[in-house]
């Protein structure tokens, strides 16, 4: 039999598509340009922590990605297909936890979850029940009577129960106490054990991202600066602590030094891709001893964001 043979397996192509691809995304509120051409690719199967200072545009970006806020320019693809309108088929594959959850105050927790479940092709009732119990949410309580943290927990249960392929969370743990935060991160990682699942969450709690071993995406000045695994960030950045009696009045010039801080007799330099030999040579030139440290993600954020 002659004729062409299909060489591409469609499911394989779908699996290889990034969970999210953004090109040239722009968004302004009046004259305030918040997103100034965001280009961003998020491969399927990763946990991404979205970092940025207050007002950097994280919420705006997440809302634009999900079709909840119109774009001024640019393109968004979800699961390899252009995002043209919210909802539709993709509703079943996306979970979203907004920054604040104020809907349906008159509904009871159980009623709200049952009502929501009806919209989804897939809903893990067992998981929802277990999370309610673990997080001590009373199914008979009215949403309007829940504390802010309890509402946030409910929003997370609602987002996780459909077992979404892409889970987007906007500061999901801001109102949670430390126990609930840890439990939530545990659930998040458990969800991620299934192949191809992707989680994007914005947060200011860098320790959570370290615990989740997330890839770090940094939004600054309206653009995505990088998306890198934490381990890779740690390989590129170092803290060099130079100490000498008599201290320092200013930091010596060093290409690759991103920030300098003087503390007593010590000079702390945050460096990017500066070889250790170069730092040892600098210490010798300056008559100082050298200590090399791995900066925490919080240290990096303070310098880079
Ligand atoms: N609906 C709106 N109308 C006008 N300006 C807005 C609107 N939404 C957001 N902004 C502005 O856009 C900028 C980015 O806000 P956004 O909430 O996206 O930041 P963020 O990075 O999520 O901040 P945070 O870390 O404080 O939550 C801010 O200057 C904000 O005032």
Report what the structure shows.
- With 305 residues, the protein is an alpha/beta fold.
- The protein has two domains: 18-221, P-loop containing nucleotide triphosphate hydrolases (Rossmann fold), CATH 3.40.50; 234-304, Alpha-Beta Plaits, CATH 3.30.70.
- The chain is built from ten helices and 14 strands.
- The strands form three sheets. A six-stranded mixed sheet has the order 6-7-8-3-9-10, sandwiched between helices. The protein has a four-stranded antiparallel sheet with strand order 2-1-4-5, covered by helices on one side. Strands 12-13-11-14 form a four-stranded antiparallel sheet, sandwiched between helices.
- Residues 1-14 have low confidence and may be disordered.
- The site of adenosine-5'-triphosphate (ATP) has 11 residues, from strand 2 and helix 2.
- Pfam families: ABC_tran.
- InterPro entries: AAA+_ATPase, ABC_transporter-like_ATP-bd, ABC_transporter-like_CS, ABC_Transporter_VariousFunc, P-loop_NTPase.
């Amino acid at each position: 039999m002659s004729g062409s043979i299909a060489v591409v397996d469609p499911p394989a192509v779908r699996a290889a598509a990034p969970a999210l691809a953004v090109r040239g995304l722009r968004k302004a509120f009046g004259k305030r340009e918040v997103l100034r051409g965001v280009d961003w690719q998020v491969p399927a199967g990763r946990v991404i922590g979205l970092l940025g200072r207050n007002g950097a545009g994280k919420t705006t970006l997440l809302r634009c990605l999900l079709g909840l806020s119109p774009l001024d320019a640019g393109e968004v693809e979800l699961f390899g297909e252009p995002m043209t309108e919210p909802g539709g088929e993709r509703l079943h594959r996306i979970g979203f936890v907004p920054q604040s959850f104020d809907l349906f105050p008159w509904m009871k927790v159980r009623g709200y979850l049952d009502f929501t479940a009806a919209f989804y092709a897939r809903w893990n009732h067992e998981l929802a029940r277990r999370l309610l119990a673990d997080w001590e949410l009373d199914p008979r309580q009215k949403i309007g009577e829940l504390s802010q943290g309890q509402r946030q927990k409910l929003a997370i249960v609602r987002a996780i129960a459909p077992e979404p392929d892409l889970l987007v969370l906007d500061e999901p743990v801001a109102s949670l106490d430390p126990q609930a935060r840890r439990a939530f991160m545990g659930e998040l990682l458990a969800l991620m054990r299934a192949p191809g699942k992707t989680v994007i969450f914005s947060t200011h709690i860098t320790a959570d991202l370290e615990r989740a071993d997330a890839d770090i995406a940094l939004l600054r000045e309206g653009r995505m600066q990088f998306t890198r695994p934490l381990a890779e960030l740690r390989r590129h950045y170092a803290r060099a602590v130079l100490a000498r009696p008599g201290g320092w009045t200013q930091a010596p010039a060093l290409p690759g030094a991103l920030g300098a801080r003087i503390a007593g007799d010590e000079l702390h330099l945050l460096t990017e891709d500066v070889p250790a030999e170069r730092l040892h040579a600098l210490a010798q030139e300056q008559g100082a001893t050298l200590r090399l440290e791995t900066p925490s993600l919080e240290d990096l954020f303070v310098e880079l964001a």
